[in-house]
Amino acid sequence: MLASLFDNAPLMIMLVGSLVGIASSLVGTFLVLRGVSMLSDAIGHSIVFGIVVVWLLTHQQSGPVQIVGAALTGLLTVFLTELLVSTRRVKKDAAIGLVFPVLFSAGVLLLNLYARDVHIDTHTVLLGEIGFVWLDTLTIGDYRVPQSLVWMGAMTLINGAFVTLFYKELKLATFDEALAKALGLAPGVLFYLLLLLTSGTAVAAFDAVGAVLFVAFVIVPPSTAYLLTDRLWMMFIHGALVSIASSVSGYFLAVAWNVSIGGMMAVMTGVFLLLAFLVGPRYGMVAQVLRRRGQRRVNEIRTLAVHLYNHEDGPEQWVENVTRALSEHLLWDVAKANRVVERSCAEGLIERRGETLMLTAAGREMAREILEPTRNGTGSLTTTAP
After folding, report:
1. How many CB atoms lie under 10 A from the CB of residue 384?
2. What pLDDT shows up at residue 82?
3. Which of 42, 207, 226, 304 is the most exposed place for a label (fewest CB within 10 A)?
4. Which residue segment(s) compose the domain that 347 sits in?
């Protein structure tokens, strides 16, 4: 039965895509929160140099040696970037743009000079071909298991273990680096370990999904999660769910439309980001519009309560505290005045006595709470009432 699962091509493709997404979003969450997510793009391209160098030294195209060796190139990218930034002559974004093209170009040149007959090419590194991951297998026990499934499963476990073991330290180093240094937590070391895992994930993923989809998984699911929650641990859950959903839906849509599977998976991460941006429960545009509309209605009711309170029991009460007077004093049209009065009545803040609008006990208490902060030390009002 297990062997039949490994032979199920659609399942293996979706599983590998999901593992790439989960492993990438685990490390990508901290890169997004630190505002350095584009380092993943630099790493994803510069590992070509590391892959070629490791092959020249070991003649291994995959495996742990390839992952570790090429991952060190990612650290080299970051080190050279920081070195340029430390000169104070180059900003960080420009430094990234200077370093990774050099390493990527060097990798391409070495590839063309010394590895022309080897199955390592820039197309594979950048775009991958997730549709064929089930054909490239390893023998584990009595089963032939896709290599990409093995390496991405391993990287997912390693990244998950790292985040779990150093969760508090990573959280503190991300949100308050100065305090982390004061407590002796070495945030710089943690950051480089994080980037080492990012590089390792990129190398493990390149044969299956390529650097482009890897970058999409590093940045987009955590960004989507950031629009959905303010809690760090929930960002990991949302990021994993978005990665799985993108992989599954991307596969089925790619098959239905006969397009690139990896490309459609990347597109679906963008679709989920767009949905979060539009209809997210807290930061989505629709939620913000509804929240602003609700706050505007609350402010209108509060304004009406203060107006009625200021004229209550005064000689002008029977003239000022009527619906038609609101147009003059509060600059509301008749329709708006009627709407606010109806909402206030429905909430039990005012009541009608003929044409006169009277505050209830609840409405009077609301007005007092609004006006109390505006009173100065002598008890007089410092603002002009409507």
Report:
1. 7
2. 86
3. 226
4. 287-374
